[in-house]
Design a protein that fits this description.
Blueprint lengths: L4 E9 L2 E6 L3 E6 L13 E7 L2 E7 H4 L12 E6 L8 E6 L1 E9 L8
Parallel strand pairs: 5-7
Antiparallel strand pairs: 1-2, 1-8, 3-6, 4-5, 6-7
């Protein structure tokens, strides 16, 4: 691996491709049911119990203010974890589909608008 090169998992959301540091990805799961919670925002679909850890699941389309999409066989949940050892946090995001893993250098990455 080239120095300063990082791997990013890319996923599709409403026709746009987004990437996240692969070191933050704990696992990728096919869409399954969740336990719903009362009095929650629409974009929070509920929680799942993953090996004894309760994980909130967020529909990223709705969180970004886009129209919800009916879930299908390509819809996946990406389980993300922070790299903070003191206060670790785990969350799941629902995306339209997973795309690829890319190796990028910092020079190839633009700052978010």
């Amino acid at each position: 691996m080239i120095e300063n090169e990082q791997e990013y998992l890319t996923f599709v959301l409403n026709g746009e491709e987004y990437g996240i540091d692969i070191l933050c990805v704990q696992e990728i799961r096919v869409w399954g049911g969740v336990t719903e919670l009362p009095n929650k925002p629409d974009y929070i679909k509920g929680v799942i119990n993953l090996r004894g850890v309760i994980i909130p699941i967020i529909d990223l389309r709705q969180r970004f203010g886009q129209q919800p999409l009916k879930y299908n066989e390509q819809t996946v949940t990406i389980i993300l974890k922070t790299q903070d050892q003191i206060n670790p946090m785990v969350v799941g995001i629902i995306v339209d589909a997973v795309s690829e893993v890319y190796k990028l250098t910092h020079a190839n990455i633009s700052k978010a608008p």
